[in-house]
Amino acid sequence: MNFSENSRIWVYQSNRELNDFEVQSVETILDKFTIGWTAHNHQLKAKAIVKYNRFIILVVDESQAGASGCSIDKSVNMMKLLEQEFSINLFDRFNIAYRDGDVIKSVGRFEFEELIKRGVVTPDTIVFNNLVSTLTDLETKWEVPFKDSWHAQVFGGLVTA
Predict the structure, then answer these.
(1) How many other C-beta atoms are found inside a 10 Å radius of the C-beta of residue 118?
(2) CB of 94 closer than 8 Å to CB of 131
(3) What's the DSSP call for residue 96?
(4) Mind listing the pLDDT tens digit for each residue in 115-125?
């Protein structure tokens, strides 16, 4: 499927890396969900992507039909079911993911603050901005240096020279 660059997205980050079997299972469940996902009885042009065995990304091309409050609620309920099925947390917004070389790690807020103070996370460390809301933003503003992200606004005062 081709999706508009303005397609709406939601990024859900797991508190742990999923193994390959779990990724395959999640993708199968979400394929079935997106095929039947509707808003006001209109089929949504939607898909789900699992990236880096950690991020679940829902995409809706609203050029055909827009996601409504009820349809968004359905997707949130689906994510809650995935949490239960796979014993993961997808709603902790202070579970922060960053790159350590080629490895993606995630830590809680306080551990992230400690990593900044110790210089492990630097202004150039790549962090994941899960607040992106369009497909274009996913491609251009999702994986960004700490200094260019919302993380710097919240945690920038902890960076030591």
Answers:
(1) 10
(2) no
(3) E
(4) 999 999 999 99
Tell me: the pLDDT tens digits for 16-72? 999 999 999 999 999 999 888 877 777 788 999 999 999 999 998 876 655 666 777
Q: Which residue has the tokens 């990724």?
A: 23
- For residue 93, which amino acid is it? R
Element (H, E) at 10: strand 8-13
Structure tokens at 137: 């933003």
Characterize the bridge pairing of strands 42-43 and 45-51: unpaired
Nearest-5° angle of CA 154, CA 156, CA 161? 170
Q: Show the 3-state SS of 23-66.
A: HHHHHHHHHHHHHHCEECCEECEEEEEEECCCEEEEEEECCCCC
Contact 136, 6 (CB under 8 A): yes
